[in-house]
Known about the structure:
The chain has five helices and 14 strands. By secondary structure, the protein is an alpha+beta fold. It folds into two domains: about 10-80, Gyrase A, domain 2 (2-Layer Sandwich), CATH 3.30.1360; about 90-240, Cyclophilin-like (Cyclophilin), CATH 2.40.100. It has a seven-stranded mixed barrel with strand order 5-12-9-10-7-6-13. Strands 1-2-4-3 form a four-stranded antiparallel beta sheet. Strands 8-11 form a two-stranded antiparallel sheet. Helix 3 (about 110-115) packs across helix 4. The longest helix has 16 residues, at about 30-45. The model has no long low-confidence stretch (mean pLDDT about 95).
Amino acid sequence: MAATLPPPRLLPSGDSAVTVEFSRTIDDDANQRVLALDKALAASPIDGITETVPTYRSLLVHYDPCKIGFDALGDKLLPIAIQPPPPVTKARRWRIPVAYGGEHGIDLEDVAKALSTTPDDIVARHAGGDYKVAMIGFTPGWSYLSGLDKSLHMSRRQSPRLLTPAGTISIGGVQAGIQCLAAPSGWHLLGRTPVRTYQLHRNPTFLTEPGDRVTFFAIDHKSFEELDRAAEAGEIVAEQVNA
Length: 243
Protein backbone atom coordinates (compact mmCIF):
# COMPACT_ATOMS: atom_id res chain seq x y z
CA MET A 1 0.00 0.00 0.00
CA ALA A 2 1.37 3.42 -0.97
CA ALA A 3 2.51 5.58 1.93
CA THR A 4 0.40 8.61 2.74
CA LEU A 5 1.88 12.10 2.86
CA PRO A 6 1.84 14.66 5.67
CA PRO A 7 -1.62 16.18 6.01
CA PRO A 8 -2.19 19.74 4.84
CA ARG A 9 -3.47 22.50 7.08
CA LEU A 10 -7.19 23.23 6.86
CA LEU A 11 -7.78 26.96 7.28
CA PRO A 12 -11.23 28.56 7.43
CA SER A 13 -11.62 31.29 4.81
CA GLY A 14 -14.76 33.11 5.85
CA ASP A 15 -17.89 31.11 6.59
CA SER A 16 -18.16 29.27 3.28
CA ALA A 17 -14.64 28.32 2.17
CA VAL A 18 -11.67 26.34 3.43
CA THR A 19 -8.04 26.67 2.35
CA VAL A 20 -6.25 23.34 2.04
CA GLU A 21 -2.64 24.42 2.50
CA PHE A 22 0.15 22.02 1.51
CA SER A 23 3.10 24.37 1.98
CA ARG A 24 3.91 27.89 3.17
CA THR A 25 6.34 28.50 0.31
CA ILE A 26 6.28 28.18 -3.48
CA ASP A 27 7.01 24.51 -4.00
CA ASP A 28 6.57 22.32 -7.10
CA ASP A 29 5.83 19.21 -5.00
CA ALA A 30 3.13 21.09 -3.10
CA ASN A 31 1.71 22.40 -6.38
CA GLN A 32 1.51 18.85 -7.71
CA ARG A 33 -0.52 17.87 -4.63
CA VAL A 34 -2.77 20.91 -5.07
CA LEU A 35 -3.55 20.01 -8.68
CA ALA A 36 -4.03 16.34 -7.80
CA LEU A 37 -6.59 17.21 -5.11
CA ASP A 38 -8.36 19.59 -7.49
CA LYS A 39 -8.64 16.85 -10.13
CA ALA A 40 -9.76 14.28 -7.55
CA LEU A 41 -12.59 16.54 -6.39
CA ALA A 42 -13.62 17.20 -9.99
CA ALA A 43 -13.70 13.46 -10.68
CA SER A 44 -15.53 12.54 -7.46
CA PRO A 45 -17.41 15.63 -6.23
CA ILE A 46 -18.23 16.09 -2.56
CA ASP A 47 -21.81 17.24 -2.06
CA GLY A 48 -21.82 20.85 -0.92
CA ILE A 49 -18.64 22.00 -2.69
CA THR A 50 -19.45 24.81 -5.11
CA GLU A 51 -16.04 25.74 -6.53
CA THR A 52 -12.32 25.02 -6.18
CA VAL A 53 -9.48 27.45 -6.87
CA PRO A 54 -5.93 26.01 -7.17
CA THR A 55 -2.90 28.12 -6.26
CA TYR A 56 0.83 27.42 -6.02
CA ARG A 57 0.61 25.83 -2.58
CA SER A 58 -3.04 25.53 -1.57
CA LEU A 59 -6.50 24.74 -2.83
CA LEU A 60 -9.34 27.09 -1.91
CA VAL A 61 -12.54 25.08 -1.59
CA HIS A 62 -15.82 27.01 -1.60
CA TYR A 63 -18.82 25.22 -0.11
CA ASP A 64 -22.47 25.72 0.76
CA PRO A 65 -22.67 25.80 4.60
CA CYS A 66 -26.33 24.84 4.36
CA LYS A 67 -25.26 21.50 2.88
CA ILE A 68 -22.01 20.74 4.70
CA GLY A 69 -20.09 22.25 7.59
CA PHE A 70 -16.40 23.07 7.97
CA ASP A 71 -15.59 20.04 10.16
CA ALA A 72 -17.54 17.57 8.05
CA LEU A 73 -15.94 18.88 4.88
CA GLY A 74 -12.48 18.66 6.45
CA ASP A 75 -13.14 15.03 7.39
CA LYS A 76 -13.86 14.28 3.74
CA LEU A 77 -10.99 16.32 2.29
CA LEU A 78 -8.13 15.04 4.44
CA PRO A 79 -8.20 11.36 3.38
CA ILE A 80 -7.99 12.48 -0.25
CA ALA A 81 -5.34 15.14 0.37
CA ILE A 82 -2.87 12.80 2.09
CA GLN A 83 -2.78 10.35 -0.80
CA PRO A 84 0.33 10.50 -3.02
CA PRO A 85 -0.38 12.30 -6.28
CA PRO A 86 -0.78 9.96 -9.25
CA PRO A 87 2.02 9.89 -11.84
CA VAL A 88 2.01 13.03 -13.94
CA THR A 89 0.06 12.38 -17.10
CA LYS A 90 0.78 13.83 -20.50
CA ALA A 91 0.11 17.56 -20.22
CA ARG A 92 -0.92 20.01 -22.88
CA ARG A 93 2.07 21.92 -24.17
CA TRP A 94 2.00 25.43 -25.63
CA ARG A 95 4.64 27.26 -27.66
CA ILE A 96 4.08 30.96 -27.15
CA PRO A 97 5.62 33.66 -29.39
CA VAL A 98 7.28 36.63 -27.70
CA ALA A 99 8.61 39.93 -29.05
CA TYR A 100 11.47 40.62 -26.66
CA GLY A 101 12.95 43.99 -25.77
CA GLY A 102 12.39 47.45 -27.19
CA GLU A 103 8.94 48.94 -26.58
CA HIS A 104 7.58 45.47 -25.82
CA GLY A 105 10.16 44.57 -23.17
CA ILE A 106 11.27 47.78 -21.53
CA ASP A 107 13.14 46.08 -18.69
CA LEU A 108 15.19 43.67 -20.78
CA GLU A 109 18.35 45.79 -20.87
CA ASP A 110 18.12 46.64 -17.16
CA VAL A 111 17.70 42.96 -16.29
CA ALA A 112 20.75 42.12 -18.39
CA LYS A 113 22.81 44.79 -16.61
CA ALA A 114 21.63 43.61 -13.19
CA LEU A 115 22.65 40.05 -14.02
CA SER A 116 25.95 41.10 -15.67
CA THR A 117 25.12 39.71 -19.07
CA THR A 118 23.61 40.74 -22.42
CA PRO A 119 19.98 41.14 -23.50
CA ASP A 120 20.47 38.34 -26.05
CA ASP A 121 21.63 36.03 -23.26
CA ILE A 122 18.57 36.87 -21.14
CA VAL A 123 16.32 36.09 -24.11
CA ALA A 124 18.11 32.79 -24.71
CA ARG A 125 17.79 31.76 -21.06
CA HIS A 126 14.14 32.75 -20.84
CA ALA A 127 13.15 31.19 -24.16
CA GLY A 128 15.15 28.07 -23.30
CA GLY A 129 13.06 27.33 -20.23
CA ASP A 130 10.43 24.63 -19.79
CA TYR A 131 7.63 26.03 -17.64
CA LYS A 132 4.53 24.72 -15.91
CA VAL A 133 1.36 26.74 -15.36
CA ALA A 134 1.18 26.54 -11.58
CA MET A 135 -1.91 28.72 -11.17
CA ILE A 136 -4.14 31.31 -12.79
CA GLY A 137 -4.87 34.44 -10.77
CA PHE A 138 -4.69 38.17 -10.07
CA THR A 139 -6.52 39.07 -13.31
CA PRO A 140 -8.28 36.79 -15.83
CA GLY A 141 -5.80 34.65 -17.73
CA TRP A 142 -2.75 35.74 -15.68
CA SER A 143 -0.63 32.57 -15.85
CA TYR A 144 1.92 32.08 -13.07
CA LEU A 145 4.73 29.82 -14.27
CA SER A 146 7.15 27.69 -12.30
CA GLY A 147 10.41 26.50 -13.85
CA LEU A 148 12.25 29.81 -14.27
CA ASP A 149 15.99 29.27 -14.69
CA LYS A 150 17.72 30.01 -11.38
CA SER A 151 20.08 32.38 -13.16
CA LEU A 152 17.06 34.62 -13.84
CA HIS A 153 15.80 34.75 -10.26
CA MET A 154 15.78 38.35 -9.08
CA SER A 155 13.82 40.55 -6.71
CA ARG A 156 10.81 42.37 -8.05
CA ARG A 157 10.98 46.05 -8.91
CA GLN A 158 11.26 48.42 -5.95
CA SER A 159 8.68 50.69 -7.62
CA PRO A 160 5.78 48.78 -9.18
CA ARG A 161 4.18 50.29 -12.27
CA LEU A 162 0.53 51.31 -12.08
CA LEU A 163 -0.11 50.00 -15.59
CA THR A 164 1.70 47.51 -17.80
CA PRO A 165 0.58 46.33 -21.26
CA ALA A 166 -1.64 43.39 -22.07
CA GLY A 167 0.38 40.38 -23.18
CA THR A 168 3.41 41.25 -21.05
CA ILE A 169 5.92 38.45 -20.50
CA SER A 170 7.72 39.06 -17.24
CA ILE A 171 9.78 37.63 -14.40
CA GLY A 172 9.68 38.33 -10.69
CA GLY A 173 11.36 36.52 -7.81
CA VAL A 174 11.47 32.82 -8.73
CA GLN A 175 8.52 33.07 -11.11
CA ALA A 176 7.78 33.79 -14.74
CA GLY A 177 4.43 35.00 -15.97
CA ILE A 178 2.08 35.66 -18.86
CA GLN A 179 -0.07 38.73 -18.23
CA CYS A 180 -3.16 38.75 -20.41
CA LEU A 181 -4.79 42.10 -19.55
CA ALA A 182 -3.29 45.52 -18.92
CA ALA A 183 -2.70 45.77 -15.16
CA PRO A 184 -0.33 47.00 -12.44
CA SER A 185 2.88 45.00 -12.00
CA GLY A 186 6.08 44.99 -10.01
CA TRP A 187 7.68 42.37 -12.25
CA HIS A 188 10.42 42.89 -14.85
CA LEU A 189 9.02 43.19 -18.38
CA LEU A 190 11.03 41.17 -20.90
CA GLY A 191 8.64 41.19 -23.85
CA ARG A 192 5.07 40.85 -25.07
CA THR A 193 3.10 38.04 -26.64
CA PRO A 194 0.16 38.45 -29.02
CA VAL A 195 -1.42 35.36 -27.43
CA ARG A 196 -4.61 35.98 -25.45
CA THR A 197 -4.69 33.55 -22.55
CA TYR A 198 -8.13 35.01 -21.83
CA GLN A 199 -10.61 36.28 -24.41
CA LEU A 200 -14.22 36.66 -23.30
CA HIS A 201 -16.06 35.80 -26.53
CA ARG A 202 -13.64 33.13 -27.78
CA ASN A 203 -14.03 29.39 -27.34
CA PRO A 204 -12.18 28.51 -25.18
CA THR A 205 -12.37 31.66 -23.07
CA PHE A 206 -9.27 30.62 -21.09
CA LEU A 207 -6.39 29.18 -23.08
CA THR A 208 -3.99 27.95 -20.40
CA GLU A 209 -4.89 25.83 -17.37
CA PRO A 210 -2.95 24.80 -14.26
CA GLY A 211 -0.73 21.85 -15.15
CA ASP A 212 -0.16 22.91 -18.77
CA ARG A 213 3.44 23.16 -19.99
CA VAL A 214 4.75 26.29 -21.73
CA THR A 215 7.78 27.19 -23.80
CA PHE A 216 8.53 30.52 -25.49
CA PHE A 217 10.09 31.42 -28.82
CA ALA A 218 11.27 34.81 -30.07
CA ILE A 219 9.57 36.70 -32.90
CA ASP A 220 10.33 40.08 -34.44
CA HIS A 221 8.15 43.08 -33.84
CA LYS A 222 6.59 42.97 -37.30
CA SER A 223 5.46 39.40 -36.68
CA PHE A 224 4.06 40.52 -33.35
CA GLU A 225 1.82 43.09 -35.04
CA GLU A 226 0.55 40.52 -37.56
CA LEU A 227 -0.17 37.89 -34.92
CA ASP A 228 -1.71 40.48 -32.62
CA ARG A 229 -4.28 41.36 -35.28
CA ALA A 230 -5.09 37.70 -35.78
CA ALA A 231 -5.43 37.14 -32.03
CA GLU A 232 -7.70 40.18 -31.69
CA ALA A 233 -9.99 38.53 -34.26
CA GLY A 234 -10.20 35.43 -32.05
CA GLU A 235 -7.46 33.26 -33.52
CA ILE A 236 -5.40 31.17 -31.12
CA VAL A 237 -1.90 32.13 -32.22
CA ALA A 238 -0.13 29.94 -29.66
CA GLU A 239 1.04 26.57 -30.97
CA GLN A 240 -0.21 23.46 -29.20
CA VAL A 241 2.35 20.68 -29.59
CA ASN A 242 2.70 17.11 -28.42
CA ALA A 243 4.24 16.79 -24.94
